[in-house]
Amino acid sequence: MLQIQDVKKAFHNHKALKGVSFNVPEGIIFGLLGPNGAGKTTLIRIITGIFFPDEGQVVMEGAPIQGLRYEGLGYLPEERGLYKKMKVGPQLVYLTELKGIPHKEAKEKVIAWMRKFDMLSWWNKKIDELSKGMQQKVQFIATVAPEPKLIILDEPFTGLDPVNTNLIKDEIRRLRNQGVSIIFSTHRMEQVEEICEHIVLINDGQKILDGEVARVKEDFKKQHYRVRYQGALPADFSHSLDVIADEPGELVVKLPDDNSAILLRALADAHVQVKSFEEVLPTLNEIFIQLVTDENHA
Amino acid sequence: MHKLWLIIKREYLTRVKSRTFILTTLLTPLGIIAFIAIMGWILSYKSDDQVKILVKDEAHLLQPAEQNTKFVLDFANAPIEQLKKQVKAEGYKGLLYLPPIDSIGVSSYNVLFYSDKSLDLESTYTLRSRIKSKLKEFKMKKMGLEAAQLKLLKTAVTIDPEPIEKGGENRSSMTAVVASAVGGVMGYFMFLIIIMYGTMIMRSVSEEKINRIVEIIISSVKPFYLMLGKIIGVGGVGFTQLAIWLLVIPLIMFGANQFMGGSAEITQMSGQLPPEVVSEGMDKIYQVLHELANMNWWVIIPVFLFFFIAGYLMYASLFAALGSAIGEDMNDAQSLTMPVMMPIILAVYIMFSVIKEPDSPLAFWSSIFPLTSPIIMPVRAIYDTPWWQILLSMAVLAITVIGLVWLSGRIYRIGILMYGKKASYKDLVKWMRTK
Q1: CA B195 to CA B175: how far, in whole Å?
Q2: Per the domain annotation, does B156 fall within a domain?
Q3: Over the stretch B225-278, which tens digit does the pLDDT of each residue have?
Q4: How many domains are contained in chain B?
């Protein structure tokens, strides 16, 4: 779907992107992560065609988008805005038409989306009469109504209540199932963990991580296992183990070579009732912080 | 191209449909008319208070008194000192003493007015002109002259410009006056439109930047088209407003005239004037109309339209570039707009000098220099400015417009994405150069 090929971009003396490459396949929810100032917004602006890369190129469906606006792209910027004095319906139709969709068709699409979000009665309301959450929904429709093949969502959930957040999450997943690729940019790692299938982490203009979420977690795991139990363990129980955390009823142990049998056997011998036994995988948040701090110290 | 059209349509329709547009478009003509009416009322204001004056007329000029509403003149022949007391006792405004006239050879005549309060300007003027005309009648009688003879002595002289070459235009003494009036109105009008709609564009650009919609739009269209669409759309709004005004103002004027019987007032006014003055006035009006009809409109209108559109495009694009550089703080706009406003304001001042001397070097150079030519050249085109000058000015302006629209586009495309820091002209140059 989308290939970023060794993209470099500098502003005067500041190198915002130092050669970034990755692929976004079709029908995926793709996390584009990075700390503030990493170059995410610059990269997004290059994908949308707002900026030219100094070097490298962006290939969309096999064709480079040098200076062109790819019409199959929907973009929801982090700092978002709409024409405040314009009515909801006409504004959405206008933004959809700007993607090259004829007026009649654009109107049909907007009506369908507004009906889906139960918003049709807002058609003639001005944007500044709406609450912030409502504006967010309008903005989301503006992004998806033209039926883009690639959607870039920059912090799409800020300002939304849990109900609407779920509504939008469901829509994102539904679009993915239809084959739409979604690039999801956020700082909220729990959201990434929840909906992204693949992530790329950018720091200081460079890609420092690229992989499937499950794979990444596997790669960064520290062979920690957590046991929840009932009963009392013998005092010398942990002597032969590498204990990470020891609290009443809960024990985290590092097991070399993922040899969980050792621990299970010891627990059985100790006659405690095991409530749960699980491998502790690092959260993306931990990976993110670890990588970024390592990078910045290196 | 279709997207440009969409942008133009939106910029145009949202403005034309807005309440502000409808109100200003309808209220401005009413405002102008109200202003004219109030000015007329102020200028024609006369107090209804009668002025009572005691007169000792030893020259027999004002007797018998022609009473009118303004003055009440009472004649008395007692000694001055006694009359002064009478003034105080009977509440006169003052005592007017006209000394006797010895001979008809007097070239100046001193009338005395005794009073503690000074006489207002209008009363002084009215009394003086009445005494003057009576004095004239008195002298004519003494010399045995008839009014008709005196009229014979008066000869009107005009300097009528005639062309040297055959087939050149014939002009009258009114040509210059009418031309300068038309030129002044056109130039001033151009100035107003540029400032009004230029700042409208600037505000609209900075609004889009501040509420961040711009980033969504430019992910669909190139920034240049957004800028161009805005300039053309807002320009269309300007044209619409003008067209409505040109239609509505004469209609309202006509209606008001009918309704308030304005023509009656004019008749009444002219009734107070000697008939010769009235006919002279009518002559003037006919001359002005004649001159207006005789102007080569087939040159003036196309030239005006060209400079109007080109001048608008040039300044509108500059204002758009400035708008993109303004952040949340509108105060920043002041220091940035100054250098753009300066040439327009300067051009208006130069225009007044050009009206007086349309062929001076200042007129020539300022009508070629593209930042002032949109205001100066149409004014000069009214006079017989050589064709090559008009064409040269048009060419220079056209090239400048293309160049400046392009440069503004380069500033704009970067400016709309720059937040936070206050931009300076140095930054604008940097943005221009950015790839």
Answers
A1: 30
A2: no
A3: 999 999 999 999 988 888 888 787 777 767 766 665 544 444 445 455 555 555
A4: 2
Q: State the Cα–Cα distance between residues B407 and B246, nearest whole angstrom.
A: 35
For B213, which of A11, A71, A82 is closest by C-beta distance? A82
Whether residues B133 and B63 fall in one domain: yes
Same domain, B257 and B114: no
Would B14 be classed as within a structural domain?
no
Kindly determine whether residue A98 and residue B430, on different chains, have CB atoms separated by under 8 Å: no
Per the structure, the complete domain to which residue B128 belongs is given by 51-147
- Which of A41, A50, A66, A104 to probe by mutation at the B interface, max B CB count within 10 Å? A50
- Which among B14, B219, B435 has CB closest to A52? B435
Q: How many Å separate Cα B194 from the centre of its chain?
A: 17
Let me know whether B230 and B316 are in one domain. yes
> Does B24 fall in a domain?
no
* Within a domain: B137: yes
- Whether residue B211 contacts residue A65, with contact meaning beta carbons closer than 8 Å, is answered with no
Q: How far is A105 from chain B (nearest CA, A)?
A: 15
Distance, CA of B5 to CA of A221 (rounded, Å): 56
Q: What is the ipTM of this complex?
A: 0.82
| B interface test, pick of A12, A41, A55, A98 with most B CB neighbours within 10 Å | A98
Locate the chain A residue with the closest alpha carbon to B215.
A77
Across the interface, whether the CB atoms of B430 and A12 are under 8 A apart is answered: yes
Q: Are strands A73-76 and A206-212 parallel, antiparallel or unpaired?
A: unpaired
Give me the amino acid identity at A177. N
Q: What is the pTM of this model?
A: 0.76
**Closest CB from A49, A52, A98 relative to B217:** A98
